[in-house]
């Protein structure tokens, strides 16, 4: 969990989200809808983004789980966290941890050549890296993360800032 090993005993019915919040005191993944529809509970598991409210904690024994707190190195922010600050990509902040984890995972998926619903060329040999993502492609890839404050233009700008590096 965020670079540190933890021994946690949980019931087999405990979701990863509840395990993180109730057993480890990690509160950045939020319980929004609790149905996997809003993305506020998004975390990275072995580098892949998942909604933790629909995932059983016992299924992730021995994996590397990263939440928004674990994105940076010590006191240094992750470049996506800094971009969210630079672009004012949050308002109430409730969805921000899930948006951050999803954005980091999404750019990694794009860099690896994973297609989305709006990917024009499905030939992996011709796939460009994440910095060539069109705004519509970023919007599609982030569509599982909702923001009730409608900070979408600023979230897009923050992701674009990182993708263009």
TrEMBL record:
Pathway: Alkaloid degradation; nicotine degradation
PROSITE patterns according to UniProt: 2FE2S_FER_1 (PS00197), 2FE2S_FER_2 (PS51085)
Species name: Gordonia lacunae
Keywords: 2Fe-2S, Iron, Iron-sulfur, Metal-binding, Oxidoreductase
Keyword Metal-binding: yes
Matches recorded under CDD domains: fer2 (cd00207)
GO MF: 2 iron, 2 sulfur cluster binding; metal ion binding; oxidoreductase activity, acting on the aldehyde or oxo group of donors
Entries under SUPFAM superfamilies matching the protein: 2Fe-2S ferredoxin-like, CO dehydrogenase ISP C-domain like
Protein name: (2Fe-2S)-binding protein
Domain 2Fe-2S ferredoxin-type: residue ranges: 1-71
Pfam families in the record: Fer2, Fer2_2
């Amino acid at each position: 969990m965020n670079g540190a090993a933890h021994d946690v005993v949980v019931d087999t019915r405990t979701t990863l989200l509840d395990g993180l919040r109730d057993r480890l005191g990690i509160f950045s993944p939020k319980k929004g809808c609790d149905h996997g529809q809003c993305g506020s509970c998004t975390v990275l598991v072995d580098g892949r983004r998942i909604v933790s409210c629909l995932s059983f904690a016992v299924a992730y024994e021995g994996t590397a789980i990263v939440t928004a707190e674990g994105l940076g190195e010590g006191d240094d922010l992750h470049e996506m966290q800094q971009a969210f600050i630079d672009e004012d990509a949050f308002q109430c902040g409730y969805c921000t941890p899930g948006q951050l984890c999803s954005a980091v995972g999404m750019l990694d998926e794009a860099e690896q050549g994973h297609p989305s619903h709006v990917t024009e060329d499905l030939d992996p040999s011709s796939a460009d890296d994440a910095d060539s993502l069109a705004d519509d492609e970023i919007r599609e890839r982030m569509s599982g993360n909702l923001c009730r404050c409608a900070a979408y233009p600023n979230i897009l700008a923050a992701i674009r800032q990182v993708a263009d590096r």
